[in-house]
Amino acid sequence: MDQDTTETNTESTEKLTDFTLEPGEKVIDDCFVVRESRYGIFNSFTLAGRPVLTALTHNVCEYMTRWHLKGEQDNWEGYDVRVVGSSVVSGKL
User: What distances in angstroms separate CA 13 from CA 6, 22, 50, one per listed residue?
Assistant: First the structure.
C-alpha cells in the first residue's frame, strides 16, 4: 500500500509543477531542457519541472541527462551500483 501511495504522490507532484519554457529555450528529445544558472553551471529539468542533474558544461549536462532518463525508463537494468569507499570517519576528531 505504501508503494502505491508514494507513486501516486510523485506523479501528482510532477503534474502540479508550473513549468514554463523561457524565450528561445530548446526542448531536447521532447522531454527535457538545459538551463544555465547565474553561476555558470548547467541544470536539466524534465518538461514537468523536475530537476534532473547539474553539470559544468551544456554538452555534458545534455549527454548525462539522456543517460539518466534512459536509466529511469529502463529501471536501471544492467547498471551496477556500488560504493567504492566509506564516508565514515573512524576515531576521535
Answer: 11, 21, 9
Q: What's the residue count for the chain?
A: 93
Q: Using CA atoms, how far apart are residues 91 and 33, in angstroms rounded to an integer? A: 45
Spans of all domains in the chain: 28-76
- For residue 57, give the C-alpha cell: 558544461
Retrieve residue 55's grid coordinates: 553539470
Q: How far apart are CA 49 and CA 19, in angstroms?
A: 5
Average pLDDT estimate for 48-65:
94
Contact 35, 25 (CB under 8 A): yes
Please list the residues that pair with 48 across neighbouring strands.
none
Contact between 28 and 62 under an 8 Å Cβ cutoff? The reply is: yes
Distance CA 7, CA 34 (A): 26
Question: Cα–Cα distance between 80 and 82 in angstroms, integer?
Answer: 6
- Tell me what pLDDT residue 81 has: 64
0.70 cut: is pTM over it? no
